[in-house]
């Protein structure tokens, strides 16, 4: 079958690889209906994280179950399923605590074996899914083609934006600022609106992303960054800053922007993968009682909550996909996102 | 009148200073009944923070109102009052948000004028209290002498321990670890118990403090620190770490201990004044979804909630005072706390 393999920075190839096979009774084989490129895939693409040897890549996919191991009971052949961007049993202590990204038996897609990750990635024709009962969420009923993009966001970006909002404690009437206008930031706007925020300030300099943020529920757009951006947020929040700030980038600058945009006693919910490990300024946090909460989003646990709103069209996270390509053109998908020609690219095997 | 003045590191003197006078209509003059030395007072005492010129020191006191300005309505002459360790109007946007330590019109006791702080400190015979309506909390009814220590803790340490627990989100059934066995850490044990924690692990190496922690509600005591301490906490919490960790010290080591003692998805509530500004390891926090929340405790807003339990004896935070001295011996009070001969020293003018 065909699957995407990264060989080195900026060297993405779609190659013939062995078909996946059931190797434990807990496995399922999923025929991929749609996959996509994640902002975090751009790190190895750009060489920010090194690629030691060629390996499969990709971690967001939806599809149809083709085969299941003998111990699998929660999913059946023919089920339409959503895979989160990681593997989890959904039963261990950490999963029960809502932190399935820290599953005691789970792991990650697409790494090389030295990382202890599962060898399959999501950007391919099929994927072997370990711990299928825990990992996969079944979509009830027939799936219409126009629902595909929205369902695919539940494998990562919509759940991740939701995690930013949940981590920040967004609730009815809150003022919320969102730092980052990528797919996750835009989904964080959806999540804040869905959780009842009264004022949502999207920080974005790109007209088309600003427009999408407004469609998703942003009441204000702030194009400025740095001190000017902080000042604009203050002006929009009674002079004190936002109750909740959703950090969806992961750089030192974006985290600083987020922390300084929060009001005293406010909370920053962050989901941007820390790029190079910016440390948090504890004295600044201490003096202002601004909290920081979040991390790698346990999206598996959010699928059941968000799925009805995606199926009904009450929320439209699928609109973050502004380019669709066949799997064979995965290299162009990476380039388009790297050059910011696309917010997020959907791949069809 | 007499009041404590710090001249330089390890140079604490009780001197005659001018009696305070009402200078604005919002002021009150409070005759101090009891004051105390705070762990954070030891910073200038030890020279960790420089003392540029002699100034008043102290910020925890209770007493009786002797005079009020013409605009004061909430407190009357003769009222027994608790002053928090800062001044606040209790009406601004930040105070209404529960963050009175960030009061838009407030300030701090005992600094020199260059810091914009109010010149009075709490370790004296009388204090001019600005913004008296917002700052002071009235204790109803007659106060018995044995209630004095408990009431005094509401000016700082009991409210600060409570803030650690509130910031960490302690609730019924939680497992809680408390890092720090000073007065604040011990009060954090009280707060965790009061909020319904099922398992409370006090980290302490001092037998008398361990005993007090147990009296306050600790179910377990861990004497180990570093990796051994973390391992002991894990053993007591099903192998994953504590739901909530209360950091009550403020060093890099204690914050690290706290973060690594929390389970994935857990929350660290921190109130230890950051000593030298330890930065927080964002990558570690991100990977484990451990949040960090807290800061300088807005104790003014907690007094009304905690006061009934102090007056009834339901909680006994006054036991953290293990030494009582006359104000004239303030220098010895500092020395006793510096040398850890005392947990916390109560001063009587």
UniProtKB/TrEMBL annotation, chains A, B:
InterPro entries: ADH-like_C (IPR013149), ADH-like_N (IPR013154), ADH_Zn_CS (IPR002328), ER (IPR020843), GroES-like_sf (IPR011032), NAD(P)-bd_dom_sf (IPR036291)
Protein name per the record: Zinc-dependent alcohol dehydrogenase family protein
Source superkingdom: Bacteria
Family named by the database record: Belongs to the zinc-containing alcohol dehydrogenase family.
SMART domains registered for this protein in UniProt: PKS_ER
CDD domains: FDH_like_ADH3
Domain Enoyl reductase (ER) residues, every copy: 7-347
